[in-house]
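It is worth pausing here to work through a concrete case rather than discussing structure prediction in the abstract. The textbook approach is simple: state the sequence, then state the predicted structure, then interpret. We follow exactly that order.
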Amino acid sequence: MPTREPQSHPTLAELRAKAQPIEVRSRKNAEHWSAQLYLRHISIYFTMILVRTRISANGVTGLMILAGWCIAASLLIPGIWGAILAVIFSQVQMYIDCCDGEVARWRGTSGAKGVFLDKVGHYTTEGLVAVALGVRAVGEWDNLSDDPAGTYPYLLAGTVLAGFVLLNKALNDMVHVSRAFNGLDKLADSQAATALNPGFVAKLKRAARFVPFHRIYHSVEMSLLALAASIATLIAASAGAAPLFGERWLVLILAPLCLLSVIGHFMSIMASRRLS
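Step two, the predicted structure:
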């Protein structure tokens, strides 16, 4: 009777114990709320299928990257159906994002290349989604030539938003680079490691918990906001409002709010123990 190969045919309990350890499930910043709430509960079943194939963990990350790019591509489809498709792909992206790490932990293949590819996936996805929101607010491409003064600001706002989104993400990586260059230990992903020193910035951060707009610049949140904007457009259109009412207000609001998030993020880093 042939014996089961534990590295390719694990039981669910074996896989869960190694691929979803408590230190992964309890991460403060690296774990998105959707993963904590429901995706980790179901990702293990797809991981069970993946570890029975020849696909590498980095190959799974490649699928995550493609799913992320599909979010932005979906937002280029006018109307509510493009937004719905973007929301679906955002969930697919996060689902696969759970699985690639699980595959790597089970096979013992975690490494720098996987982290790098993961960063590429999230940076490119969130930058492209922000740009796509600006393009979506323009509407038909003919609008750029027919009414440049009325449509160009939305395209510009989407591009500016993408820049702020990427800068906001890069600030976290700048912390790790700065620590590495100065011979400091890897920063723990915990509340204590990122706690602020007492003072004005700490008070501002406590106040921000009541209006957490700094948390909306992820592909999941931005796709949900795109769907809400499309619904707002449909409601406004029935009341005789201008076309693309929701999409245009969305990108105009998100860009300055993201700038505030970048400033607040920078102040939080400087007022914390992360660089010491």
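Step three, interpretation. Residues 12-270 form a domain with the Four Helix Bundle (Hemerythrin (Met), subunit A) fold (CATH 1.20.120.1760). Confidence is low (pLDDT under 50) at residues 1-6.
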